[in-house]
């Protein structure tokens, strides 16, 4: 956020609040107090809210009806939150954004069902947008996301291939960004060609976002992320920085040990994380994220200049310049 | 199935096969072999397929487009299957329909994600029907189902109240039947009043179905159900037969023990199950299920006679006359 404060954009903050209100409106008085408190916490805990921000800014830029922007933003963020609830359960994560996860306090049963409830809410919010095409895209995206997680669970550990990596981060992150900006195009009644360009823009933002997440996993201190440095590699997930390092030093004995499947050996992984942190691999990965950002900006620059477009540029830059 | 074989109805069997094919078409070659096998198993294991049967018969009776009948049947059965996968995980059930459940073989992580994948497929199938109103009803129904399970998890054990019981079985079973027949009305372009009547018919069928399930939990042998006799009460779930018994014998010392919360005491529960089995309570509960059936039939009889209507009558009778 170098040159301007994007949240000074007229109505952005207000629209983000409306999205949050819309999400929280699904927590009803009929819910038991415990559950109500947990849902309230989940839906207002926030995080970066980058998806709703991209949706509000691009939707406003393109003149989409406000009501549909709010429903779309709430549906996407709700879907994202639902996937996080099940992810944290699966990973046994106890902290998220520095706060205890649902499964840190609750039984697996309650956590599974709460995630399911949020999926149902997300589908309901998506239906409110009033477009069958968006509804189909929405459910397809959820299929892609869950499929990606299943593939990772069944066969993704210890694999290092660029193709596999790009597929995985597409499923995990870029697919939902892509769906979001495609849906923005649809609710703005853009022409088909522009809808596809917008989808591509979202795709690039998502790819850049996830690559940066993977870089930050190596560079951020435990305090900022709430998990140990190099946590992906510790779980056998080989992300882009590790791929660059492996390509550069295929004969490093620790690389060889890793590729033999010894990623559960703490010494091997500690040594590799240190080596990656001291190598050019992180810079190379960040460069690649910047390349996706430049592709996204190229598309964005095809739309007329306005304060929302400028704010969106800032947000897209922020994706690769952030340090949390 | 007393007087006729409903499966002799022209096209019923064929339509049910098409529904199964449609469900299985979501299992793609990109899935890993393990997962493909598990999905295949889940989607073809069958069960009674009562929901698709009701949808096919009532849809054909009302002249709905066949393509939409298939999508609706597949969407509803997929949603039902998804909820079963998470239910079995939550209950730790190892058998369903006499076959090992997913969680009996797989990790909780894989089971959670497989359920999520089936939810996504269900939403996608529902979107294919091409009606936003159905899509909204569909996601609302999922909210009702999951909400019911959450309420049960957080506060439902050991509670005995009719109001609570009816709410619970509506959420668990009747809501999805109601949504199914409402959707049949919508794809058949019925008038609003008829759509509501159809929804009511589905509601009554669902209530009768669940009450009979609760009766069968007391009467069926372990072999037929794949779980011990009285398994609901053993888990602290007080269903209609137990409610009738409690109302009749409030001073029975075992009833008092139960209501003091001693439902985890095996002696208390064994004694009560025996007593309920030997009492009028099961007959009374079954009578109540028959009352719902008669209400459903009253509505059905408002539609012109045809072979599908006759088959639907048989199916509705079967709901309360079945012994598994």
Outline of chain A: globular
Work out the helix count of chain A.
Answer: 16
Largest sheet of chain A: 2 strands, antiparallel
Approximate helicity band of chain A: over 70%
N-C termini distance of chain A: 13 Å
Strand order of the largest sheet of chain A: 1-2
Which architecture name of chain A does CATH use?
Answer: Orthogonal Bundle
Uncertain spans of chain A: none
What is the CATH first-level class name of chain A?
Answer: Mainly Alpha
Task: Describe the structure in your own words.
The structure is a homodimer of 324-residue chains. Chain A has 324 residues and is an all-alpha fold. The first copy, chain A, has a single domain, classed as Farnesyl Diphosphate Synthase (Orthogonal Bundle). In chain A, 50% of the residues are buried. Chain A is globular, with a radius of gyration of 20 Å. Chain A is built from 16 helices and two strands. Chain A has a two-stranded antiparallel sheet. Chain A starts with 11 loop residues before the first helix and ends with a helix. Chain A binds chain B through residues 26, 30-32, 34-35, 86, 89-90, 107-110, 112-117, 119-121, 123-124, 126-128, 130, 132, 135-136, 138-140, 142-143, 145-147, 149-151, 153-155, and chain B through 26, 30-32, 34-35, 86, 89-90, 107-110, 112-117, 119-121, 123-124, 126-128, 130, 132, 135-136, 138-140, 142-143, 145-147, 149-151, 153-155.
């Amino acid at each position: 956020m170098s040159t301007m404060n994007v949240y000074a954009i007229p109505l952005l903050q207000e629209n983000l609040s409306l999205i949050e209100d819309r999400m929280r409106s699904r927590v009803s008085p009929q819910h038991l107090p415990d559950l109500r408190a947990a849902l309230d916490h989940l839906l207002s805990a926030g995080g970066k809210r980058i998806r709703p921000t991209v949706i509000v800014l691009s939707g406003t830029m393109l003149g989409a009806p406000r009501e549909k922007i709010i429903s779309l933003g709430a549906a996407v963020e709700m879907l994202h939150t639902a996937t996080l609830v099940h992810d944290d359960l699966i990973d046994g994560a106890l902290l998220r954004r520095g706060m205890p996860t649902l499964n840190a306090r609750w039984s697996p049963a309650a956590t599974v069902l709460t995630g399911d409830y949020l999926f149902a809410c997300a589908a309901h919010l998506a239906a409110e947008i009033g477009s069958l095409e968006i509804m189909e895209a929405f459910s397809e995206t959820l299929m892609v996301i869950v499929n990606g997680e299943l593939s990772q669970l069944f066969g993704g550990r210890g694999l290092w291939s660029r193709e596999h990596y790009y597929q995985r981060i597409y499923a995990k992150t870029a697919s939902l960004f892509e769906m979001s900006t495609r849906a923005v195009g649809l609710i703005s009644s853009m022409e088909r060609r522009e809808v596809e360009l917008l989808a591509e823009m979202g795709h690039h933002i998502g790819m850049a976002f996830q690559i940066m997440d993977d870089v930050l996993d190596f560079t951020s201190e435990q305090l900022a992320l709430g998990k140990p440095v190099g946590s992906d590699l510790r779980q056998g997930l080989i992300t882009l920085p590790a791929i660059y390092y492996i390509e550069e030093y295929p004969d490093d004995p620790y690389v060889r040990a890793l590729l033999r499947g010894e990623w559960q050996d703490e010494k091997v992984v500690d040594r590799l994380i240190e080596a990656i942190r001291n190598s050019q691999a992180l810079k190379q990965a960040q460069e690649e994220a910047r390349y996706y950002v430049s592709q996204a900006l190229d598309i964005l620059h095809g739309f007329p200049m306005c304060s929302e477009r400028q704010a969106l540029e800032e947000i897209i830059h922020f994706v690769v310049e952030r340090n949390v």
